[in-house]
Structures are given as C-alpha cells and as structure tokens.
Amino acid sequence: MAKVIGLTGGIGSGKTTVAHFFSELGVPVFIADKEAKTISESKEVEPELLSLFGEKVYKEGKLDRKHIASRVFSNPDLLQKLNQIIHPRVQKKFEQWLKIHSKARYVIKEAAILFESGSYKQCFKVILVTAPQDVRIERVLKRDITDYDSVVQRISNQWSDEIKIPLSDFVIENINLLQTKSQVLEIHNVLNKI
Predict the structure, then answer these.
(1) Are 64 and 71 in contact, with CB atoms under 8 Å apart?
(2) Rounded to 5, what percent of the chain is helix, strand, coil?
(3) Which helix (H) or strand (E) holds 127?
(4) pTM, full prediction
(5) Can you list the alpha helix ranges (DSSP code H) found in the chain?
(6) CA trace torsion 149, 151, 152, 156 (10° rounding)
(7) pLDDT per position as a tens digit, 106-124
C-alpha cells in the first residue's frame, strides 16, 4: 500500500503549486479542497446545505460560495457543521482514490485543514508549506474575488504556522519558485528511500 504523505499550508501559502511540482515528478496527488468543492456543488448534499444555510445558499440554482464564506468564516460553529457534511465524503473519495494508486511508493494528500480536521494522524509524513502572511494575503487578493478583511478572517480561522511546524516532518518556505521546486525534489528523494 502506498504511503500517504499529507501536504498542507494556510490559504495563499502555495500548497497547490507544491502539489503540482510533486505531480510533475510522477507522484499521484489528491487535492482534497478540489474534491470538497465538487461534493459541495453536488445534488447529494443540497438538502443538508439548505437545512444549514437556508434558501440563500443557492443563487439562480447555483451554490453561492461567497455567501457561504461570509457566513462560515465569522462563525466557527457553522464552519464545523459544514465540515461535518463535506469532509467525511471527501475522506471516502480519498479512500477510493488510494486503492487505485496503491502500487505507488507514496501519494500526496493535499488538504488545507489537514491538522484542523485531525486527518494528519492518518499520514505517514506531513509536508507544511509556509509563506509570510503579507505574501499570502497578496496572492489571495490576486487569485480570488475578495477583499483584504475577508482574507485576514480566513487566515485567522486556520491554525497558525507556529502550531503546525512542530507537527510537520518537512517545511517548505514558498517564496521563490525555483527554491521551492528544489525543496520538493529533496523531499521526493528522501521519501523514495523510506
């Protein structure tokens, strides 16, 4: 069975970029956040989301992600209830995906809330991607249709790097892409020997 390597980092840290570098090396990569988005937009969870958020959760028949974000990132209890709907389903999809890639030496499971959800405990090793907060905010503002206060609020809902670093086996500071790629290669070489 392939060893599961957790890959995480706060919003804007560049974990998706790091995941892409591992993918380029031929490592199977599961993007939990992408799977969570697919599940949240499926008919399967529609009744639960309507029950949790009310009619405003859908706008013209489509999930209103901005509305959800504005509600959950200022209400930790609501965020936890949303996670209880989505994350068990993501875990089930991951288990199915892992069976397909069981012959790989190792696989990457990328998840923003790997630590917060407790799923890091199921990983053989954990890679944390970090970047200075101002860099992270700038990246998210360029990438998403959002505002400064919303990004800061989302950051404050995630564990800080100070809490995550002692729980991680590898830390990649993602500021310079060439250096990041080089760190990924070093970690890949270490993981291939385990």
Answers:
(1) no
(2) 60, 15, 25
(3) strand 125-130
(4) 0.89
(5) 15-24, 32-40, 46-53, 65-72, 76-100, 133-143, 148-156, 161-164, 177-193
(6) 130
(7) 999 999 889 988 889 999 9
